[in-house]
Automatic annotation (TrEMBL):
Keywords: Lyase
Species in which this protein is naturally found: Streptomyces chartreusis NRRL 3882
SUPFAM superfamilies noted in UniProt: Glyoxalase/Bleomycin resistance protein/Dihydroxybiphenyl dioxygenase
Molecular function, one GO term: lyase activity
Gene3D superfamilies named in the record: 2,3-Dihydroxybiphenyl 1,2-Dioxygenase, domain 1
Keyword Lyase: yes
Cited Pfam families: Glyoxalase
Residue ranges annotated for the VOC domain, each copy included: 6-137
Name of protein: Putative enzyme related to lactoylglutathione lyase
Amino acid sequence: MAMDLTIHASFLPHDDPDAALAFYRDTLGFEVRGDVGYQGMRWITVGPVGQPGTNIVLHPPAADPGITEDERKTIAEMMAKGTYASIVLATRDVDAAFERVQAGDAEVVQEPTDQPYGVRDCAFRDPAGNMVRIQQLKP
């Protein structure tokens, strides 16, 4: 028997909470569900309007006390290159989503493209360098 599971939260790092908030709230149109500060750091929970069970937690990447200083440096370097974290979103109109996100001054990685593997998508980097891909939903 299959378990009844859903994806409740995914985590993406941020290095500037205000810039992350502006991107996910103002550019993508997500609602803010939580904004918690602790010891000078912030965890911001956002999610798509009308989907209260789906959340993205924007977190300080080096908050885990088990991370070494060398690991912190590696994480910072990977974030700067945009190779540390990513998320794939979906929409019914990828071209309209692209125009909205591009108007918000996001770093464009790829304009809407029909991929050889059957998906139409586009890609941006959020303010922390995370890859944000947006795919066209199939009708």
